[in-house]
Structure formats: structure tokens, C-alpha cells
Design a protein that fits this description.
YheE family protein, 69 residues, 36% strand, globular, alpha+beta, 1 helix, UCP037692, four-stranded antiparallel beta sheet
Length: 69
């Protein structure tokens, strides 16, 4: 489960898409860039391959709730 999820726009101009995201998962801190098409570019640490699909799904749901609604 993702905890301490945060996001902020990449650019000061709000109508340009793209967000900087950060969160904790299983005690590890992850960050990256969330693009308008749902693609995630991971920062320094990439989540383990066996859970990356689940994490991406959770992030997509959070972004739909916070940004698009």
C-alpha cells in the first residue's frame, strides 16, 4: 500500500501537464514524474518488478481522484 503520497505540478503554468510524485511503499521512498498519459518515469529508485504494476495502478487511481476530478 502506498503511503504519504504527494504530487505537485512540474511547471508553474498549471495548464501544462505533468506532475512530480513521491510516496512510500513498504518503507522505501520513491519519486518520479507522472505524465498526462499515465506513464511514470521513476526517479533514483525503481519499485521491484513484481509490484510495479500494482503501484502504477494505485498511483493512477490517486491521480484520478486528486487531479482529474
Amino acid at each position: 500500500m502506498i503511503t504519504h503520497f504527494q504530487y505537485k505540478p512540474l511547471f508553474k503554468q498549471v495548464n501544462l501537464p505533468g506532475w512530480r510524485i513521491s510516496f512510500y511503499f513498504r518503507g522505501n521512498h520513491y519519486d518520479g514524474t507522472y505524465h498526462k498519459n499515465g506513464q511514470i518515469e521513476w526517479g533514483v529508485m525503481t519499485p521491484p518488478k513484481e509490484v510495479v504494476t500494482d503501484i502504477q495502478s494505485q498511483i493512477h487511481e490517486l491521480m484520478l481522484f486528486h487531479v482529474y476530478e
